[in-house]
Design brief:
The complex is a heterodimer. By secondary structure, chain A is mostly helical. Helices cover 74% and strands 0% of the residues of chain A. The relative contact order of chain A is 0.10. The longest helix of chain B has 32 residues. In chain B, the strands form six sheets. In chain B, strands 16, 17, 18, 19, 20, 21, 22, 23 and 24 form a nine-stranded antiparallel beta sheet that branches. Chain B is globular. Chain B is mainly beta. In chain B, a hairpin with a 5-residue loop joins strand 9 and strand 10. Classes of the chains: A mainly alpha, B mainly beta. Chains A and B meet through helix 1, helix 2, helix 3, helix 4 and helix 5 of A and helix 1 and helix 2 of B.
């Protein structure tokens, strides 16, 4: 079995490997990105870009087992970029409609879930990442820290602040 | 009723379950030709990898050099009083150290360079500490990992003995709260409620309620700033629609009649928030502390739109209304960063010495942190420990105790000796009569900090 460093870049073998990874990993990654961005089409683009990046960097991976971690970090980075672009847009357009789920999703989701997801999207990216990784993917603090590229202490504080902010936000919604 | 965590989990899974079909993977055809691909890859992606390695090496060398470097001058500042030596730092400290899972309480003797006690209890998470002026009395907040309910403990030092006793003070009404111990160590102020809507002041001796104040519906309280005598100092946003542009620092006399947090307090100082200069936003007082003699010391935040570099002369600054030295105490030199901030942890009388953490975000989205002492117009870097140089955040450190210090964890401080060690490996530990922000001060609803900001 060839390791990534042995496979020529762009070779059919690499394409096959990336395609197999896509089969196995893309759907959960799109789900993660949907939670981060609130928009499935944007999430799909972010995940596509992550796989494209992996394809281009295949030879720099020294362990195939790291591909999944690389992809998750790439998706999180991509979602941050989306947020930055969106933020810049929102500074120009006052009170824009927030990034929303599809009409179908809006119907299928209950009001309570919609409120939580809206509050989640209002969190700063780092807090949102920490909260989603901890409570959606159920990663440990250590795993979350690795995915975000920060310390466990940062994960802990970001999660705590995120949950506090969500709690306040939801209370206001209910008041 | 479901907890916030449970609601997040349920909503996230519900939303994720609606994602069922995704488009097939699209890979570029040109990269299927190996020779072209190899050349292109080296040009396009080789450089960033080399750059990343260089940055890593630089970071490592900085850490290694930290023990060796002496005072370091970096930015500009008007004339000010001379540098303050480490001897000016107080003797005892108490701080919360994050172990990655729960926080532990560390009490130490800085002058002797010893940790006196490390308190770590199963099921308990120390989250904050606030101290009195005597340098040896603190109140710590500790949260049960099962019930999530915070309680308060009194911590005191006598000689080498550390005593910890539970306090009868009620738990805060909300998960988000700040607290501050009075200078004489007899009363505790707790700011809590939805959006810091309410302030409670209790006596430590029996948990009795001294008073309870509430803000009005349209008012925004931003955070506690400490105790001065019988006055609780706190910050709020100015009134009206444009009020978010002004921080009002207010004093509330807890002995005076009246129960309005805003209505019965007086404005002692105002500082602008979020001033725009072209594409640059400046928050001149994002972080603050009061010195023992009442000087408000501010740390600024600056950020740019479109990720442009911060213009020269607008870098993160430390300011204070100090007659002897002028308003600007220190400004970080301009650099290739897109945002930056100065988080103030402690300031001595007259703001002659200020412990601060400077943070700058470089264009690739990496944030660099430097912790150190501003004195005499200079910034002297100090070491911190436990967290990598690129990941220390103010929130990781912002557990206030009685006096500011540079501290180590138990093992390192004990082995390396003396604290006064400016430049020694040690985790900064903010302090004095200032509140213990269990959660960082928050901006008003709808004003969540943007991603390019530091928090």
């Amino acid at each position: 079995v060839n390791t990534p460093t042995e496979a020529p870049p762009g070779s059919p073998e690499v394409r096959d490997r990336i395609s197999a990874l896509y089969e196995a990993q893309a759907l959960p990654l799109v789900k993660l990105a949907v939670l981060m961005t609130g928009d499935q089409s944007v999430a799909e683009d972010v995940v596509q870009d992550a796989f494209l990046g992996l394809y281009r960097r295949w030879n720099s991976l020294d362990d195939p087992g790291k591909a999944a971690g690389y992809l998750r970090s790439s998706v999180l980075n991509g979602c941050r970029s989306v947020h930055r672009l969106r933020f810049r847009r929102e500074r120009i357009v006052l009170d824009p409609p927030g990034p929303s789920a599809s009409a179908e999703a809006s119907v299928l989701l209950g009001e309570a879930h919609r409120e939580v997801l809206a509050a989640l999207r209002r969190l700063p990216p780092r807090q949102r990442e920490a909260v989603v990784l901890r409570y959606y993917l159920d990663l440990t603090e250590e795993q979350t820290a690795q995915a975000m590229g920060v310390s466990r202490g940062t994960v802990k504080s970001a999660t705590s602040r995120g949950i506090d902010a969500l709690g306040r936000s939801l209370k206001e919604e209910e008041a | 009723m479901m907890s916030v965590e449970e609601r997040v989990r349920a909503a996230a899974h519900a939303r994720a379950s609606l994602v069922r079909d995704i488009p097939p993977l699209r890979l570029p055809d040109e990269l299927t030709r190996p020779r072209q691909a190899r050349n292109r890859r080296l040009v396009t992606w080789g450089a960033p990898l080399v750059a990343a390695a260089a940055v890593l090496a630089l970071v490592v060398s900085q850490v290694m050099l930290r023990h060796a470097v002496g005072p370091h001058s970096g930015g500009t500042s008007p004339g000010s009083s001379g540098p303050v030596g480490a001897a000016a730092l107080p003797r005892y400290f108490a701080a919360v150290e994050d172990t990655g899972t729960t926080g532990q309480l560390v009490v130490g003797d800085d002058h002797a360079g010893r940790v006196l006690k490390v308190v770590k209890q199963a099921g308990l998470d120390y989250v904050g500490v606030s101290g009195a002026a005597d340098d040896r009395t603190w109140v710590a907040a500790v949260v049960s990992t099962k019930t999530k309910q915070p309680t308060f403990q009194k911590v005191s030092v006598s000689g080498t003995q550390v005593r910890i006793s539970p306090l009868a003070i009620p738990s805060p009404s909300d998960q988000s709260y700040q607290f501050a111990l009075s200078s004489d160590g007899r009363e505790l102020a707790v700011l809590s409620g939805n959006n810091f809507a309410e302030l409670w002041v209790y006596t430590l001796s029996d948990g009795g309620l001294v008073g309870h104040w509430k803000k009005g519906p349209a008012q925004q309280v931003s955070g506690l700033a400490g105790f001065q005598g019988s006055r609780v100092l706190f910050a709020a946003y100015g009134p009206g629609a444009s009020g978010y542009k002004v921080y009002q620092f207010r004093a509330l006399d807890v002995r005076a009649p009246g129960r309005g947090l805003i209505a019965d307090s007086t404005v002692t100082q105002q500082e602008p928030a979020d001033v725009k200069q072209g594409s640059t936003t400046i928050d001149s007082c994002r972080s603050w502390v009061y010195t023992p003699d009442g000087v408000l010391v501010c740390g600024s935040y600056v950020g740019t739109e479109n990720r442009k570099p911060v213009p020269a002369g607008l870098g993160p600054a430390v300011t204070g209304d100090v007659p002897a030295s002028g308003k600007l105490l220190y400004r970080d030199p301009a650099g290739q960063y897109t945002s930056g901030g100065a988080e103030i942890f402690w300031a001595s009388a007259g703001a002659r010495a200020v412990l601060v953490q400077l943070s700058v975000e470089t264009p690739p989205g990496k944030t660099q942190y430097r912790f150190g002492l501003v004195s005499g117009g200079r910034f002297t870097p100090l070491s911190h420990l436990g967290f990598g140089p690129s990941v220390v955040e103010p929130e990781d450190l912002a557990f206030l105790s009685n006096r500011p210090l540079v501290q180590g964890n138990g093992r390192d401080l004990g082995q390396q000796g003396v604290l006064p060690g400016l430049g020694q490996e040690g985790r900064p530990h903010p302090v004095p009569g200032q509140p213990g922000p269990v959660n960082p001060r928050s901006r008003p609803p709808g004003r969540a900090p943007e991603d390019s900001r530091l928090r």
